[in-house]
Design a protein that fits this description.
By secondary structure, this protein is α/β, with parallel strands linked by helices. Helix content is about 40%, strand content about 20%.
């Protein structure tokens, strides 16, 4: 499929001309897709347009400060916009309804498959929220404090509080502008996103550390989180947010993998790279994608089959 790329000015004209838009966010929502979705909703509201943010999964409680404004009123959509979604497979149960109807995709993933009629793509951006900021700036919209908090959260979470390699000078500049121009509770946001952990999350960290598996001469670490483990420990699935970074904390590891059971014989795989291994390319061989250092995919089969497929894919990826 050939991707129809547009520039910022074309995206601005599209947004100014659209009506009654649904804004799609990806399954297992994170700070960037939620922030981008609700920030874009604020921008469309400033333009006098109705919009609604949709997700196949519930938004985790830790993002209530963004989502508490409400997803928007019900209406028959005339426009479909996707944010931070590189592939319609990531729409979850929204794919059947909207997968082939997306008119505009706003994204920063190099693995974007080009499923939308038009795509505003900047693979060099730290987060999709960075693109939402650029759109607001281009449209000369005075952002609300809520919109600023959404954009800041998306950038902060996708850069690991500005420590990942995707961190750019531009995202620091945007954060500085947001701090100067808005009542931005950045310290509170950073604490909630990076320091505060639920009892369930702390319990899961202990469990997955004990159960961590090592492959390929300890260059690959893997944790597997099944429904049985969650039920036995009385842990909510939302407590797993951020666990994907744990396997990469082991000294000498090149690739860290987290496998989470989504349903029977269906597993979500999150993959992180410490140095030079391109995990986006590896995940693409398994039907997924993402960033060079952070990617994912959905793999079907028994847990042992999925683990074997992932190990083999990583082995080949390390040899290339």
């Amino acid at each position: 499929m050939r991707i129809m790329l547009i520039d910022l000015s074309e995206a601005v004209e599209f947004l100014k001309g659209c009506e009654d838009a649904v804004i799609l966010t990806h399954q297992s929502p994170d700070g960037d897709c939620i922030g981008a979705g609700f920030a874009l909703k604020d921008l469309l509201e400033a333009l006098g347009k109705r919009s609604r943010v949709l997700c196949s999964d519930e938004f985790p409680k830790r993002y209530d400060f963004m989502t508490s404004v409400g997803s928007g009123e019900e209406f028959e959509p005339k426009t479909v916009i996707a944010v931070d979604i590189a592939d319609p497979q990531l729409m979850g149960n929204l794919r059947e309804t909207y997968g082939n109807k997306v008119q505009l995709c706003i994204d920063h993933h190099i693995s974007n498959v080009g499923y939308a009629e038009k795509t505003l793509l900047n693979a060099g951006a730290s987060a999709t929220c960075e693109l939402i900021y650029e759109l607001a700036d281009a449209m000369k919209i005075q952002m609300s404090d809520h919109c600023a908090a959404c954009i800041y959260t998306g950038i902060a979470t996708d850069t690991g509080c500005f420590k990942y390699e995707c961190t750019t000078a531009r995202c620091h500049e945007i954060a500085a502008e947001l701090m100067k121009s808005h009542k931005l509770k950045y310290a509170k946001i950073n604490r909630e996103m990076f320091d505060v952990k639920s009892i369930g999350r702390l319990k899961m960290e202990r469990i997955v550390t004990d159960l961590m598996e090592y492959y390929l001469d300890n260059r690959l670490t893997m944790i597997c989180i099944t429904s049985d483990i969650l039920n036995e420990q009385h842990v909510d699935a939302n407590d797993l947010d951020g666990c994907a970074s744990i396997p990469l904390q082991v000294e000498g590891v090149e690739v860290g993998v987290t496998i989470k059971e989504k349903s029977e014989n269906e597993y979500k795989v999150s993959m992180r790279s410490a140095n030079d291994v391109n995990v986006s390319a590896i995940c693409q061989t398994l039907g997924g994608g993402g960033h060079i250092k952070a990617a994912g995919c959905l793999v079907k089969g028994t847990l042992e089959e999925v683990k074997a497929a992932v190990v083999e894919a990583v082995r080949k990826g390390m040899e290339e």
